[in-house]
């Protein structure tokens, strides 16, 4: 049986083990693995097959609750079922993977349920559609204004954020903070769309707003990270999930503006820009010892390189060559993560380095 940092901290708080003994255990495990703890970027997900077994059972209950409730009550039934199961598998048994699934099921179901209620309260208006040989036939359909659709999204996001707050106060699952912040970000983007009478998907202000929100979430994640540079408390897990939320909010607008997501051809200049941004993301990821930025930007790099290889004649092998180049680069980065990170930290101010995770610092000393 393995024990996570959260388990050790819980044992210390309960008085089952002293802080000195826990520190000695950490040092022994780190020495035995010949690698610092923080380099592994550990977070608790699965502690045994029972986690997977319980998760499958929870998923079946969620599916059944949605089917029994139907369109009108399905969201409420799922939210209630997820909260009830969390009382057992999160509050009492502290199972990691089921807790994550139940939290996500609860906030998503609650958001959808409230969104359905608000949607039913907002009146639709008749829109005529002409068809036929001379467009002489009319079919009226009930549709909503764009600002109404945005408000429905916003109401669901607000409910999800409040639900995440209540869930955090009760169960303290690390991913809950990221879920609540994600709801707040969606609420903000929906309000911007509603103010402009646009749906969230067609809002021209969405990319810059998402980028600003992503940078704000990244700063918030760094606040949690810097409060636990040794990554020995649940604050490190909270920071991990926040980084995972911030990464796509930062990455997608940048590559959207570069035209990578449009489906058209990517020039050599654009591909070089994509690679330059990815190298910058890699430097940031190395400095803070977080790989979320690299994972989020990976799809865009694959698209850019694949289209570039296609332009230069490697039509049949463009996917294979792209996967080979990026895969080899990532494997080399993973294999030499610690020494490369030590080199990156050597270029940063000492006062900043002192606040960052100390895994590579001890090697470079």
Topology:
Blueprint: H1 5-14, H2 19-33, H3 49-89, H4 96-121, E1 125-131, E2 137-143, H5 146-171, H6 175-195, H7 206-226, H8 234-257, H9 268-288, H10 292-311, H11 318-335, H12 337-345, H13 350-353, H14 359-364
Antiparallel strand pairs: 1-2
Helix pairs in contact: 3-4, 4-5, 5-6, 6-7, 6-8, 7-8, 8-10, 9-10, 10-11
Helix and strand element order: HHHHEEHHHHHHHHHH
Report mean pLDDT, rounded to a whole number.
83
Q: Write out the strand line-up for the largest beta sheet, numbering strands in chain order.
A: 1-2
Strand content: under 5%
How many strand segments?
2
Q: Indicate the low-confidence ranges by residue numbers.
A: 33-38, 360-365
How many helices? Answer: 14
Give the end-to-end Cα distance, rounded to a whole number of Å: 34 Å
Please state the structural category. Answer: mainly alpha
Q: Helical amount among residues, as a percent range?
A: over 70%
**Radius of gyration, CA atoms, in whole angstroms:** 24 Å
Q: Main beta sheet: strand number and arrangement?
A: 2 strands, antiparallel
Note down, in words, how this protein is organized.
With 365 residues, the protein is mainly α. It is built from 14 helices and two strands. The protein has a two-stranded antiparallel sheet with strand order 1-2. β1 and β2 form a beta hairpin. α9 runs antiparallel to α10.
Brief write-up:
The protein is mainly α. It has 14 helices and 2 strands; from the N terminus they run ααααββαααααααααα.
Can you give keywords for this protein?
365 residues; mainly alpha; 4% strand; disordered C terminus
């Amino acid at each position: 049986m393995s024990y996570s940092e959260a388990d050790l901290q819980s044992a210390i708080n309960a008085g089952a083990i002293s802080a000195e003994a826990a520190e000695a255990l950490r040092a022994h495990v780190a020495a035995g693995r010949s690698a610092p703890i923080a380099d592994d970027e550990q977070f608790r997900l699965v502690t045994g097959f029972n986690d997977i077994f319980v998760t499958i059972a929870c998923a079946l209950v969620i599916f059944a609750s949605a089917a029994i409730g139907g369109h009108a009550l399905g969201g409420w039934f799922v939210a209630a079922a997820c909260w009830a199961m969390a009382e057992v598998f999160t509050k009492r048994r502290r199972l990691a993977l089921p807790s994550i699934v139940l939290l996500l099921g609860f906030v998503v179901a609650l958001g959808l349920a409230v969104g359905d209620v608000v949607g039913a309260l907002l009146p639709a208006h008749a829109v005529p559609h002409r068809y036929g040989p001379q467009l002489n036939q009319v079919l009226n359909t009930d549709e909503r204004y764009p600002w109404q659709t945005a408000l429905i999204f916003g109401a669901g996001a607000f409910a999800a954020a409040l639900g995440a707050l209540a869930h955090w106060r009760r169960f303290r699952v690390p991913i809950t903070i990221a879920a609540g912040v994600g709801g707040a970000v969606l609420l903000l983007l929906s309000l911007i769309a509603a103010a402009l009478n646009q749906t969230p998907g067609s809002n021209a202000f969405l990319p810059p707003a998402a980028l600003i929100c992503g940078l704000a979430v990244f700063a918030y994640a760094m606040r949690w990270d810097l409060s636990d540079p040794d990554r020995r408390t649940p604050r490190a897990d909270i920071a991990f999930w926040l980084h995972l939320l911030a990464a796509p909010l930062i990455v997608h607008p940048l590559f959207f503006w570069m035209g990578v997501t449009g489906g058209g051809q990517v020039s050599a200049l654009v591909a070089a820009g994509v690679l330059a941004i990815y190298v910058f993301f890699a430097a940031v990821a190395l400095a803070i010892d977080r790989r979320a930025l690299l994972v989020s930007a990976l799809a865009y790099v694959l698209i850019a390189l694949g289209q570039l290889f296609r332009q230069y004649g490697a039509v049949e092998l463009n996917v294979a060559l792209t996967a080979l180049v990026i895969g080899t680069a990532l494997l080399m980065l993973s294999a030499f993560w610690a020494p490369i990170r030590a080199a990156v930290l050597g270029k940063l101010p000492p006062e900043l380095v002192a606040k960052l995770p100390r895994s590579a610092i001890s090697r470079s000393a």
